[in-house]
Amino acid sequence: MAALLVPSLLTSCSLDDKSGLGWFFGVILQLSEGMWASLVLFVLTLLFSMPLGLLVCFARRSRFKVVELIAKFYISIMRGTPLMLQLLVVYFGPYFVFKVALSTEYRFYAAIIGFALNYAAYFAEIYRSGIEAVPKGQYEAAHVLGYTKAQTFMKIVFPQMVRHILPPVTNEVITLVKDTSLAFAIAFVEMFTLAKQISATESTIMPLFVAGLFYYIFNLVVSYAMGLLEKKMNYYS
Amino acid sequence: MKLLEINNIKKSFDDLEVLKDISISVEEGEVVSILGPSGSGKSTLLRCATLLETMDAGTMKYCGEDAVTEVNGRSVYASKQDLKRIINYFGLVFQNFNLFPHYTVLKNVIDAPIHTQKREKGEVEEEAKALLEQMGIGDKLDYYPCQLSGGQQQRVAIARALAMNPKILFFDEPTSALDPELTGEILKVLRDLASKRMTMVIVTHEIDFARGVSDRVIFMDEGYIVEQGRPEDVIDNPKNDRVRAFLNKLSQ
Questions:
Q1: First-last CA distance in chain A
Q2: A147 at the B interface (CB within 8 A)?
Q3: Measured between alpha carbons, how far is B249 from B233 in angstroms, rounded to an integer?
Q4: CA dihedral (A89, A91, A94, A99) positive or negative
Q5: Which domains does chain A possess?
Q6: For the segment B142-173, what is each residue's pLDDT rounded down to a tens digit?
Q7: Nearest CB to A156: which of B88, B100, B144?
């Protein structure tokens, strides 16, 4: 009898607690590991996709038709198929193609690789728009002044491109914050995966709200930082 | 000494023949104005001379050095290395200035001499400041181009071109983007340069200015030079009907 009562007591206890502040912070504590994982995924994705995007952009603008076509194809695949599917392919691909056993650490790498490859395609197109927004006269002035092609890009075009692309890049970065939740598809334990688990085991929607709050605050910080950067780049015009 | 020598240049854009057969040479210290209606090929000629456009046929020499030679009736350009040297013989001032918006006035002027001509920074900076002072914008060194009027921007652009110490300076309608008052500012700068015997080739629609400042006037129409000579001959007593009609329209 007592043995039957104790669990029911416990449940009623925890049910009561669910409205309490202590329980709320308990959930946050449980989620914090996931928050960290999301943050790492976010930072590493940007770190790899932004330079990779520049390479893809160069390829896309190459005067060699073959290189241009490859870049176009890459971009169209990356933009034309779901990111979740791409994550699955990157994660399970090695197993199905090479019969390599999947390690748990690979999940982490697969997530980074999948995100970086996907976001590089979007960044490449954003960079391209930024480069093409630099007037032809800038290249002509640079040419007459004897700048080499590399100097023209580094000194004249790139700084102006950066200014042009900040608003669309902000958009993309904000999307990435939320897209990190897609990593649950390959059972990569990030914030959203944990929130869903806790929500299911504790049968409450609260952790999902906490997750939502996390993404929202994360993005407030991102928008604020990008806003500062935009202001800083606005020193001319 | 002939600074520039262009012979029988031809240039087409697709099916449109813009330069049909033009030869022009410029002596050291000479000021040459190029007049003519829109679409006559003036700007294209200037762009070919400054290597912004490649010519189809014809030859070009700067200071006696071959920039473009001709093989079997087609233009052949000198090696990259030679062109890199030749590009230092001339400067170009654009119609819409084309200043670098992210650089200050001073940096616009000194960056190329330092990084493309590998000259010493202190020396270039002194020279640039003197040039900007001479242009009447010595107090605007730290301004960005967007903070300046059109006339001031064009003066920065002229200083930028002069800082490279070119032997010959081209102007592509330098006042067309400016209102009459600012136009006067720029024309005054050009007159000053002319009085210092700077070799200049100026594409312009300012007839009075051309008459006052040029040693020689070239009138172009439909890809040909239709008349050239002293300004008092070409502008005041044109022999060609087309020139007369154009000048009449301008003076109305």
A1: 79
A2: yes
A3: 18
A4: negative
A5: 24-233 (1.10.3720.10)
A6: 999 999 999 999 999 999 999 999 999 999 99
A7: B100
Selected for mutation to probe chain B from A136, A138, A145 (highest B CB count within 10 Å) is: A145
Candidates B87, B99, B145; nearest CB to A146? B87
Contact B164 A235 (CB under 8 A): no
Chain-chain contact of B164 with A146 (C-beta, under 8 angstroms): yes
Q: Are B62 and B4 in contact (CB under 8 A)?
A: yes
Given CB atoms, is B91 within the 8 Å cutoff of chain A? yes
Structure tokens at B28: 């050291």
- A147 vs B185, more confident: A147
Q: How far apart are CA B112 and CA B124, in angstroms?
A: 10
Q: How confident is the model at residue A70 (pLDDT cuts 50, 70, 90)?
A: very high
Please give the domain boundaries of chain B with CATH numbers for all domains.
30-49+90-251 (3.40.50.300)
Look at residue A19 in the predicted model and tell me its pLDDT: 63
What's chain B's average pLDDT? 92
Residue B98 has its nearest CB partner, among A138, A147, A235, at: A138
The pair of structure tokens assigned to A14 is: 């925890």
Chain B residue closest to A157 (CA)?
B100
Token representation of residue A209: 């709200």
Question: Residues B94-110: what's their mean pLDDT?
Answer: 95
Residues A94-125 pLDDT 10s = 888 888 777 778 888 999 999 999 999 999 99
Environment class of residue B39 by beta-carbon count within 10 Å: exposed (0-12), middle (13-18) or buried (19+)?
A: middle
CA dihedral sign, ordered A148, A149, A152, A158:
negative
> Which pLDDT score, from 0 to 100, does residue A11 have?
42
Contacting residues of B for A137, CB less than 8 Å apart: 94, 96, 98
